[in-house]
Each structure stands twice: as C-alpha cells, then as structure tokens.
Amino acid sequence: MRVTTPTNLVFDDSDPRCFLKLETGQHGQHYAFVQCVDVNTGEKSRYWGVWCHQEQEAAMTEILNWGGKWPNLPK
Fold first, then answer.
1. pTM for the whole thing?
2. Contact between 49 and 70 (Cβ < 8 Å)
3. Residue 15, SS3 per DSSP
4. Average pLDDT of the segment spanning 30-35
C-alpha cells in the first residue's frame, strides 16, 4: 500500500523507513501506529489513529492527515 497526502507525507509499505504497528484497545477498537516519510524534509514522521481493516487506505489517509503524533515506538 502506498498513500501520499497533500502535505507530502508518504507511507509506502515497500520503504524500509515506513512501518505500521496495529494494536487493539480494551473495547476492541483497533489502532495503528504509523511511521511515514515527509518528502519535503526526508525525515521520518510518526502518527497514530483508529484503524479499519476493511478500509485500510482510507484509514491510513485519515491517520496521516489527522492522527496524533507520537515521538517513540510503543512498547
């Protein structure tokens, strides 16, 4: 999957700098922790948000556009 936002954030699952970690919350809600690349700077950016297995590309776009930022990998 490759998703590019209007602000030039790119998630590409074939890029080793990008990754997706899925977790399930206490009430069964799925969340994604995403590392993507900001093509304006070449730096990695990290966001998290609600994940939908049926609409993965839409969920990824929503996370990259509106997700919360996180500085470190969740343990």
1. 0.89
2. no
3. coil
4. 97
